[in-house]
Automatic annotation (TrEMBL):
Keyword field: Membrane, Transmembrane, Transmembrane helix
UniProt protein name: Sulfotransferase
Database matches in InterPro entries: Nod_factor_sulfotransferase (IPR052796), P-loop_NTPase (IPR027417)
Keyword Magnesium (UniProt): no
Organism: Oryza glaberrima
Spans through the membrane: 41-63
Amino acid sequence: MGGSKAEEKPAGGGGGGEDWWCYQFGNKDALIVKSSKKSPLALRMVVFAMTMICGIFICTMCMKQLGSDSLSRIVKIEVAEQLCNKSAILHSEVHFVHYPQPITYSRSECKCTPVRFFAIISSQRSGSGWFETLLNSHMNVSSNGEIFSSKERRSNISSITKTLDKVYNLDWNSSASKNECTAAVGLKWMLNQWQSRISIPLILCLQGLVANHADIADYFNRRGVSAIFLFRRNLLRQLVSQLANNHDRYLKQLNGTHKAHVHTAYEASILARYKPRLNTTSLIRSLKQVDDYTHDALENLKSINHITIYYEDLIRNRTKLLDVLDFLKVPRSKLVSRHVKIHTKPLSEQIENWDEVYNALNGTQYESFLNADYRI
Ligand SMILES: *[C@@H]1O[C@H](CO)[C@@H](O)[C@H](O)[C@H]1NC(C)=O
Ligand SMILES: *[C@@H]1O[C@H](CO)[C@@H](O)[C@H](O)[C@H]1NC(C)=O
Ligand SMILES: *[C@@H]1O[C@H](CO)[C@@H](O)[C@H](O)[C@H]1NC(C)=O
Ligand SMILES: *[C@@H]1O[C@H](CO)[C@@H](O)[C@H](O)[C@H]1NC(C)=O
Ligand SMILES: *[C@@H]1O[C@H](CO)[C@@H](O)[C@H](O)[C@H]1NC(C)=O
Ligand SMILES: *[C@@H]1O[C@H](CO)[C@@H](O)[C@H](O)[C@H]1NC(C)=O
Ligand SMILES: *[C@@H]1O[C@H](CO)[C@@H](O)[C@H](O)[C@H]1NC(C)=O
Ligand SMILES: *[C@@H]1O[C@H](CO)[C@@H](O)[C@H](O)[C@H]1NC(C)=O
């Protein structure tokens, strides 16, 4: 019920050039950071000064924390944890079980219903919008969408932490919010989003997750947050989907509105009409960079308790979803989504210069992308 709207939000704040950290693929491996360049010495001074300020800031905060408000809150949480009988929970699970006390409402009869924290970590056009609606169709799961598409919320680790705290305290009010009996709460976090108007060079933009990976992995491990890594094996299909999505962002083919996800086969057919032309000179390089980049990110985040899911596997075998429900320790149930897949045809009918692309990839490590098609 409540869940069906969270995904309606445009996937990603990925509109124009609102992202800071962008790698431009294709020409040069330039890291475009839209900030003024500083000399190493000046930079070091700044870092030093920041460290000092942070130190003082943390001390001050600690002092304040001992003040009335937080203290009573901490005590309250401890009391609640003590009141809830944890003896039925496996020892290995205790770290992942929580009893949040929302500020904005009371969990009333469910205050001792354990809550798991999760984050869907994915990349654009990997089916994560679809996946999230499926999860939100579960009565006890609340996934609050791509909340870090907002630049302000991800601008530094303290605003990231503050936002996460609010979500995991069940205080985040979104269309995906459920009742007090939520048993798993989370959000969707994109490792990257690909931006490009028409074709490659791709521009890969980051939603704060990579820039702050150490702190975030630390937060997740400390607070017992589990991650669902959702990826797509076929990067070529992902690229086509991304280019078609970007194309629609500018053309707004559906009655003047841009849609990242659709609910009818008719709308899907309109969005799938566009056949991108890929620059075969830079294609392999771009695919490799995206591949390496995802590997590096996962390497950095692998200490988090996680499950890895592939979009293609979910499409082929819906029972894979039950693995996710088991991972979140919520009761198994049938999950539904109104999303309709946009690109259903073989890749050869979806790329303008298919022959060129075929020749460029044939015989390379990405050859499998050309042939691996799935039935719907
Ligand atoms: C294709 O990519 C190459 C290398 O990045 C670039 O030099 C060339 O201009 C691109 N071609 C088109 C048509 O964009
Ligand atoms: C906690 O629950 C277990 C069974 O799950 C029960 O045996 C035990 O008595 C309960 N403890 C308290 C303090 O209620
Ligand atoms: C972090 O970002 C928020 C929002 O952009 C800002 O208000 C705050 O001052 C920043 N904090 C630090 C320590 O930079
Ligand atoms: C959540 O937001 C909706 C609409 O903005 C509002 O009607 C509702 O009262 C809010 N709920 C809470 C618990 O703040
Ligand atoms: C799921 O939600 C229902 C209805 O709100 C509630 O009765 C039930 O206890 C919840 N289940 C779990 C495992 O939290
Ligand atoms: C566009 O609007 C017309 C009439 O307002 C409606 O019949 C049609 O279904 C809409 N098309 C899409 C793709 O939303
Ligand atoms: C579908 O996925 C489930 C759960 O992972 C697995 O047990 C089952 O063997 C899979 N079925 C097929 C046909 O691959
Ligand atoms: C793909 O490459 C192989 C050799 O690597 C070649 O035999 C085959 O004809 C190529 N396929 C096409 C369709 O060009």
